[in-house]
Amino acid sequence: MNQPVQKNTLYVGGLAEEVNESILHAAFIPFGDIKDVKTPLDLATQKHRSFGFVTFLEREDAVAAMDNMDGAELYGRVLTVNYALPERIKGGEQGWAAQPIWADADTWFERQQQEEEMQRIQA
């Protein structure tokens, strides 16, 4: 089953160790309103695993951010920015949860879509 790509959530790879969620937020806010920033932590070290996710309210802002930030430098490291896949948002590249979390990745994605639907209805 192919899941649609979240076009307003960006995967940001190549983060320097010093980069935290507020720095990531500051780096991407020039492109538009940000709904969420996540840097999944390694449970053993409690440091992020050099990648994060930035979710924009508007798809167009995510596109602009990806165009401008892919290959850009932040704290001396070159960033990789592309659309996030739902399972990468959930578990990262190697999965950072103690147990497999793929089982609820689908329900997570559905909840995200329901949330967006609710926001559209309320708007």
TrEMBL record:
Keywords: RNA-binding. The keyword RNA-binding applies. Pfam families: RRM_1. Residues 8-86 form the RRM domain. PROSITE patterns: RRM. InterPro entries: Nucleotide-bd_a/b_plait_sf (IPR012677), PPIE_RRM (IPR034168), RBD_domain_sf (IPR035979), RRM_dom (IPR000504). The keyword RNA-binding applies. One of its GO terms (molecular function) is RNA binding. It comes from the Eukaryota. This is RRM domain-containing protein.
